[in-house]
Specification:
276 residues, EC 3.6.1.8, Helix Hairpins, single chain, Nucleoside triphosphate pyrophosphohydrolase, MazG-like_dom, NTP-PPase_MazG-like_N
Length: 276
């Protein structure tokens, strides 16, 4: 009877979270589940989780609200997947995850759920949030300034977080102009490494240049990941325009010269500026 009830729940459109949890349990059932789902591990699922998070961000950027609903569902499935595997291994379950984040939100918002005053700026609330997070890191034995910055973050985002941490203790430039000067210096060092054809030095200097560029973005109040995503989309848009123009002429990028494509790129750029 219990199995019949669980099966009914799976096909209940109003089943909510219990329905999704039961679906995942059945997918991972060693006897009757899906072979692919059964074979997955924490390590194999983690890349999908990152990918789904980016698809959520992409839907938000495009204002694709119907797509966002589906992408959020895909992201939620990743949490449910980890919860099911952890439950199978005796670590924790979905209820523990929900309890942990609920406890954290209550603890980090004493001005909403406690007796602290709400009469403070968003900036002060951000400072209070960081103080609370530092206390949590201290409790976990993360006593170094840069401890706890996740290794799995995209490199630019991680660079930004590392720089913010260092800035809190005064290790920072006071003026964006100083960062720009550092970019010039790192560019020169990269050029020297390239001239010497030293692959290891080239990679090292390229990393330095990207790191300091992320630092400049921070000083200018720009999210480097968001800025680069924006430029990626701009590149796609303009290259598609080149392709469309060439197609209208009976040609393709593979057949066109670099000079011709540069001319069409400039034309696409001019059209965009005209319509801004």
């Amino acid at each position: 009877m219990a199995e019949d009830a669980n099966t009914a729940l799976i096909f209940d459109a109003q089943g909510g979270m219990p329905r999704l949890l039961e679906i995942m349990r059945r997918l991972r059932d060693p006897k009757g589940g899906c072979p692919w789902d059964i074979e997955q591990t924490y390590e194999t699922i983690a890349p999908y989780t990152i990918e789904e998070a980016y698809e959520v961000a992409d839907a938000v950027t495009r204002g694709a609200w119907e797509e966002l609903k589906g992408e959020l569902g895909d992201l939620l499935l990743q949490v449910v997947y980890f919860a099911q595997m952890a439950q199978e291994d005796g670590h924790f379950d979905f209820a523990d995850i929900a309890r942990a984040i609920s406890d954290k939100m209550v603890a980090r918002h004493p001005h909403v759920f406690g007796d602290e005053s709400r009469d403070k700026s968003a900036h002060q609330q951000t400072i209070d949030w960081e103080v609370q997070k530092q206390a949590e890191r201290d409790a976990k034995g993360e006593d170094r300034v840069l401890d706890g910055v996740a290794l799995g973050l995209p490199a630019l985002t991680r660079a930004l977080k590392l720089q913010k941490r260092a800035a809190r203790v005064g290790f920072d430039w006071n003026d964006p102009k100083a960062v720009l000067a550092k970019i010039v210096e790192e560019s020169q060092e990269l050029a020297e490494a390239a001239e010497n054809a030293d692959p290891d030095a080239i990679e090292d200097e390229m990393g330095d240049l990207l790191f300091v560029t992320a630092n400049l973005a921070r000083h200018l109040g720009v999210d480097p990941e968001a800025a680069l995503r924006r430029t990626n989309e701009k590149f796609i848009r303009r290259f598609n325009s080149i392709e469309d123009d060439l197609k209208a002429q009976g040609s393709t990028p593979a057949k066109a010269s670099l000079a011709e494509m540069d001319r069409l790129w400039d034309a696409a750029k001019a059209r965009e500026k005209k319509h801004k």
